[in-house]
Amino acid sequence: MSRITSPIARILTATDRPGIEARLAERFDAAAVAELSAARDARILALDTELPGLAGQLAAALRAAGAVARTAGSLVATVATPAQLAAAKSAWPALAAELDALAAGLARATQPRPFFRLRERSLDLREEARVMGILNVTPDSFYERVAGVSEAVARAAAMAADGAALVDIGGQSYAHWNPTVAAAEERDRVVPAVAAIIAARTDIAVSIDTFKASVAEAALAAGAHLINDCSGLSDPLLAETVARYDAALVVMHLKGELNVRSAKTYVYGDALAEIVEFLHERTERARAAGVGADAIAIDPGLEFGKEPQTDLEILDRFGELTALGYPILLASSRKSFIGRLFNRPAVGLLVPSLATAGLGIAAGARLLRVHDVAETVALAQMYAAVHPRRRRAQVFAERMPGTPAQVGNSTPPSAV
Q1: Per-residue pLDDT, 416
Q2: Set 335, 389, 391, 399: catalytic member
Q3: Do 93 and 143 belong to one domain?
Q4: CATH number of the domain that 93 lies in?
Q5: In Å, what is the CA distance from 275 to each residue of 86, 134, 272, 317?
Q6: Are 48 and 163 found together in one domain?
Q7: pTM of the full predicted structure?
Q8: Of 43, 155, 366, 369, which residue is the catalytic one?
Q9: E strand or H helix at 251, and its extent?
């Protein structure tokens, strides 16, 4: 019997690797799921071999294994599956280091870390991005500050109630128009807030936004779980201090100096290549100091040593950060580059800030540092709701609040 219409092919896809595996598992056995998932993991990978001759050999090995590979000087760009990379390594053992680097980058990008460890706590990042609420105990932060310990505790409790998993306490503004603060003064601002929030048994992890080891030491001794370092480990003692408390660490990319604006230095050849290389070197330094690999997150440092064009480029290419294999923190909330784009003050930037958070989640961000906790939590939950595991277990209200109850056989309001 002949077909009435021509057949049409479909593309099987989902929001992430576990999602497509769950879809395949509904129809295929485990071996088929593994094979199809591995083939799906092709990405455009790039590796600088530093030698044009080596680049040519590597590209030839990849093409012989069935991958797409091209060179530009010492740079190799390839689209390859894990099976093709393994085949190339088997046939060309002399290129094992380069092929292993490509395979490792691909694995990290396609199989992100499912958890982020914070001392005795662990954040589940498998389905939903987690929100870090900003709590500034400074007199000069550009947007929303708290005055005093009791207000800090109340604000942290409100953030927890709104769904925040972390609160990030800052005792130093990094805006270039504000002066730097001595370590003793910064300690006096943040440590009482940390101690009070911990004592109040607020169900939230406590992060400290500092680059100074002495401030980190005091905050960790008071019970903080995470140090959020906006300087990329400028203090050589910071990483070992974090390691001593078995705490977590966010390593941020910074070009230039904190509290200093120098647009002439904010020039990049390839912004993401430079940021990735910086974060790789600094996270390796942190691990060498004893910080656990499962307790490290990275931040590309939007606006820190960047002009708005570079900030937008980072958002556009955000997924390139996944090759480092660490949870990625996005800190874009009400920042100046958004205000300069829309010509609005910080108070008018909620919607575009949420848009940047959505871009980040879609590209792999799993930690969101924000001023507007409730709104961002709802955004993250909406993204998570489409995940197969989440949507199967989701409990839905009988009808949307504010709509009339169904009468007789009339059409349900949700279908109108």
Answers
A1: 45
A2: 335
A3: no
A4: 3.30.1370
A5: 28, 24, 5, 11
A6: no
A7: 0.90
A8: 369
A9: strand 248-252
